[in-house]
Design a protein that fits this description.
509 residues; alpha/beta; eight-stranded antiparallel β-sheet; 14 helices
Length: 509
C-alpha cells in the first residue's frame, strides 16, 4: 500500500507495529521480510519514486579533512536509495574482519563470521546473485579455463566476487512493496525528529515533514532507522530536544568512526605470457571473478589492514583519471566527464611477450574516532541541521597499501612469472602524504558502530541502540570495521539478522 504524505491532512497520526525509516537496500530488505505477516509495517521514504533535485539537496553538507566527493552526490534520496547507482559487486567479509586484531585499534565485532552465514545465503536471492559460493574451487569447476596465478595462497590468495545485474531496488521491489497488504509505504515523509519517553528509554514517535508544509506523527512499537551511515548519525544527533548530545550519544560515539574504502591505483603488474588472467577480468555478463588478497597470517605478521588488488589492463588504466579527480560540485560537468570515462586507450608500446596491468587497491580504513559525522550550523529546507563529514586517513592505511603490493610483487617474482612496480607515491616508506587521486568507493560505514560496551559503541550485537529498548539502526552504519569488499552484501545480511531479532522480540510482547 502506498500513500503520498503530501496528500494527507496536516498533523495526521500514522500508527503501526514496526516503523522502518528509509527505503533503500536495508529498509526495503527488512520490509520484504515482514510481508504477509500479521503486523502493520510502516515504511517511510523521504523522496518519491524518481530523482528530484530538491529532495536530493537535503543530503548536501560540508566536508573537511581528506578531499572527498560532494555529500549531495554520494547517496540517492528516493525509493530504492543508492541501489539506483551501485555497481553490483558482492563478496562476504573474511573471518579476520570480525576479529579483534591487536594491530588494528578499535577492531573486533561482537559477532563472528559464522553468525552471518545464514544471512549471507539469504541475501543472494535479494540481489539476484548466483549460489552462495565464494570459493575458488567452485568457480573453477564451472569454467575450467580460469586459472589462478601460481602464488602461495598462504601469502596471497584469490578472493572471489559475484556480480549482481545490478539489482535496482526501485525497479524490482516497487510493485512488490506497494501491493503488499500489510506494508504501508509513505513517500515524501522526511523524518526530522525522533521523540522518546521522559527518561529516554523508549521511542514514542517520529515527526515527519515535507515541502508542502505539512507535518505528521508516526507511532509504532519498534523503530528501525535505515537511512545510510551519514544520515543515520545525522538523525540521531539532530534529535537532541530530550538528549542534548543526541539520541544514543551519551558517550559521544554517534557519528564517530566514519569509514570509507580507500580506492586507489597502486602499482603495475607485468606478467610474462602465456599467463592466463581470465579469472581476474571483469566485463559485462561475467558472474564471478577474483581479486588478489593478503592472507590473515600475513596481515598479522606485517601488522597491516585488509585489502585487495584488482587487475585492470594497463593500456586502459593509465589513461584514466580517478573518480575523485573527475568529480565536482557541478552535476552537469560530472555527467559530461563521466560519459567518456575509460573510453580512451593509451599507446604504451607493451612488448608482445608481456601482459601489463594496473593493480588497483581497495583497502579498509582503520576505525578512527576522529573520522566522523557532526552537525553543521546550516539547516536544510526542512529545518534539520546539515551533516558535516571530516574524513581522516592516517599513515597506517598508506603503509598497508605499500606492504600489500610488496607481498604481491615478491610472490610474482618468486614464481618467475613477472614483476610488480609500485607507483612513485609509495616509494618512500616514511612519506604519509596522499596523492590527489586518492579516492573512496562511496562506501559509507561506521557512525553507529556495534559493540557490547555502551561506552565504546552506539548499538549492541542486535543493532539496538544502547539504553533505548525499541530503537534499532540498520545498514553499514553499524559496522565496526570496513573489511575490503563493497558493503552492500553484508549490510543486507546484517539487516536480515536484525529483522529476525525484532520478529522474536515482537512475538514475545
Amino acid at each position: 500500500m502506498h500513500t503520498d504524505a503530501r496528500q494527507l491532512d496536516n498533523n495526521t497520526i500514522i500508527e503501526g507495529d514496526i516503523c522502518i525509516v528509509g527505503a533503500g537496500a536495508a529498509g526495503i530488505s527488512i520490509a520484504l521480510e515482514w510481508m504477509n505477516t500479521k503486523y502493520k509495517v510502516i515504511l517511510l521514504e523521504g523522496g518519491g519514486f524518481e530523482y528530484d533535485d530538491k529532495m536530493q539537496d537535503l543530503y548536501a553538507g560540508k566536508t573537511t579533512g581528506q578531499h572527498y566527493f560532494p555529500l549531495k552526490s554520494v547517496r540517492l534520496h528516493y525509493f530504492g536509495g543508492t541501489t539506483g547507482h551501485w555497481a553490483g559487486w558482492c563478496s562476504p567479509f573474511d573471518q579476520v574482519d570480525f576479529k579483534e586484531r591487536d594491530w588494528v585499534p578499535h577492531s573486533g565485532w561482537p559477532i563472528k563470521r559464522e553468525d552471518m552465514e545464514p544471512f549471507y545465503a539469504r541475501t543472494q536471492g535479494i540481489l539476484d546473485l548466483g549460489p552462495y559460493e565464494y570459493g575458488l574451487d567452485y568457480w573453477k569447476a564451472q569454467d575450467p579455463e580460469i586459472k589462478p596465478l601460481p602464488l602461495n595462497e598462504e601469502i596471497v590468495w584469490n578472493k572471489m566476487w559475484q556480480f549482481s545485474p545490478p539489482t535496482r531496488f526501485n525497479q524490482k521491489y516497487k510493485d512488490v512493496i506497494v501491493n503488499a497488504h500489510n506494508i504501508h509505504l509513505y513517500t515524501y515523509a522526511n523524518v526530522t525528529n525522533i521523540a522518546a519517553n521522559e527518561n529516554v528509554s523508549s521511542i514514542t514517535q517520529l515527526i515527519i515533514k515535507n515541502f508542502e508544509g505539512k507535518q505528521h506523527t508516526v507511532k509504532a512499537k519498534y523503530f528501525i532507522i535505515a537511512c545510510c551511515a551519514v544520515q543515520n548519525a545525522r538523525l540521531l544527533l539532530a534529535s537532541n530536544e530530550q538528549s542534548p548530545k543526541g539520541l544514543g550519544n551519551d558517550n559521544d560515539n554517534v557519528g564517530r568512526y566514519f569509514m570509507e574504502h580507500i580506492e586507489i591505483k597502486a602499482s603495475e603488474l607485468w606478467l610474462a605470457n602465456p599467463a592466463s588472467v581470465k579469472l581476474y577480468m571483469w566485463q559485462q555478463g561475467v558472474k564471478a571473478r577474483a581479486e588478489l588478497a593478503i592472507s590473515e597470517k600475513m596481515q598479522q605478521q606485517h601488522k597491516i589492514l585488509n585489502g585487495t588488488a584488482s587487475l585492470i589492463p594497463l593500456e586502459l588504466a593509465r589513461n584514466q583519471q580517478s573518480f575523485i579527480e573527475t568529480w565536482s560540485e557541478d552535476e552537469a560537468e560530472n555527467k559530461r566527464t563521466m560519459s567518456g570515462y575509460g573510453s580512451k586507450k593509451a599507446d604504451l608500446k607493451i612488448p608482445s611477450d608481456f601482459n601489463a596491468f594496473q593493480l588497483f587497491t581497495r583497502i579498509e580504513q582503520a576505525p578512527n574516532p576522529n573520522s566522523r559525522i557532526t552537525l553543521g550550523t546550516e539547516k536544510d529546507a526542512l529545518g534539520v541541521p546539515r551533516a558535516s563529514l571530516h574524513w581522516e586517513l592516517t599513515g597506517f592505511e598508506k603503509r598497508s597499501i605499500r606492504k600489500i603490493h610488496e607481498l604481491i610483487g615478491q610472490e610474482v617474482g618468486r614464481a618467475a612469472n613477472g614483476r610488480v612496480q609500485m607507483l612513485s607515491y609509495l616509494h618512500d616508506a616514511k612519506d604519509e602524504s596522499w596523492p590527489k587521486f586518492t579516492g573512496g568507493g562511496w562506501h559509507h560505514m561506521g557512525t553507529t558502530r556495534m559493540g557490547n560496551d555502551p561506552k565504546k559503541a552506539v548499538v549492541d550485537s542486535n543493532c539496538k541502540v544502547h539504553g533505548i529498548n525499541n530503537l534499532f539502526m540498520a545498514g553499514s552504519s553499524c559496522y565496526v570495521t570496513a573489511a575490503a569488499p563493497n558493503p552492500t552484501l553484508t549490510l543486507i545480511a546484517l539487516s536480515l539478522r536484525l529483522s529476525d531479532h525484532v520478529k522474536k522480540q515482537i512475538s514475545n510482547t
